[in-house]
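Raw record, unedited: DUF3301 domain-containing protein
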Amino acid sequence: MSTFLGILFLLLLLWFWLDSARARELATAICDSACGDRGLQFLDQTVALRRISLRWTGQGIRIRRLYRFDFSEEGVGRRSGHIVMLGTALEEFSLGLPSLPDNVIPIQRAASRRQQR
């Protein structure tokens, strides 16, 4: 019986490791895409796990992971954002930047405008 429990524990550990790797891969891809869409530089091309917890959902218990990442607006300085993954689904994404009101148009740099033409 103890051999069975040992094997079950190893399988559970393997599943957790693979699930964590998949969630981190998805979080990295989401951050890279979101930063690219906003014209930001996704620094270090990675996310860092900050917190892990369990959460009850309508589908049962899910693992909730909070990741932090760094980005740059102008290529100078570092800012931090975070992303929360519930299992392998996106729950929350934040760059920590103030949102622009609807009547404000962001100013683009001359190089950015030339690339769009």
